[in-house]
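agent> Task received from the user: take the single chain below, predict its 3D structure, and emit C-alpha cells. No templates, no multimer pairing.
agent> Plan: (1) validate residues, (2) run structure prediction, (3) serialize to C-alpha cells, (4) report one or two observations.
agent> Step 1 OK, no nonstandard residues flagged.
tool_call: predict_structure(input=
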Amino acid sequence: MLPVGAVIVGAIALLLGAYATIKVSSLQKTVATHQEKVDKIDGIESQVGSVGGVADKASKDIVSLTRTTQQAVDTISNDLGSIHASLVKLEESQKKPVAAAGGKGGPREPVVAGPGEYVIKAGDTFAKVGRAHGGFTSAEVASVNPGVDSSKLKIGQKIKLPAKK
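)
tool_result: status=success, residues=165
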C-alpha cells in the first residue's frame, strides 16, 4: 500500500507542478504586457519632465519681458511728462504780452501786421521794405504812408505796403 500511496502523491505532485508551470507562463505574459505599459508611462514621464523645463523657461522669459516692458513704459512716461512740462512753459510764454521796443510806460501788446501792412524792425528803411515785399521803390512805399517820415522810423511802427503790381 505504501507504494500505491507514493505513486498517488507523486502523480498529484506532477499535476500540481504542471499547473504551476502553466500559471507561471501565464503570469510571465501578463508581466511582459505590464512592462510595455510601464515603459510607455516612463516615456510619458520623461516628456512631462522636459515640458516642465520648457514651461519654467517660458515663465522666466515672460517675467523678464514684463519687467523690460514696464521699464520702457516708465521711460516713455517720464519723457512725456518732460515734453508736457515744456509745452506748458511754451504755452505760458505765448500768453505773456511782449513789450514793444521803443515805447514808454511799460509793456504793451505786440504790434501785429494785418493784410497789406508791415511792422518795422531794426535796420528797416522804406527801400528795404519795398524791395522785400514786392519789389517796390522807396517812393512807392512813401506814397501809401503819407505823414510817415522815412528817416524817423521806429521799431514796432506799423506801415502800409503798396498794392501788388
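agent> Step 4: summary for the user.
The chain has two domains: 1-96, 98-165.
agent> Done.
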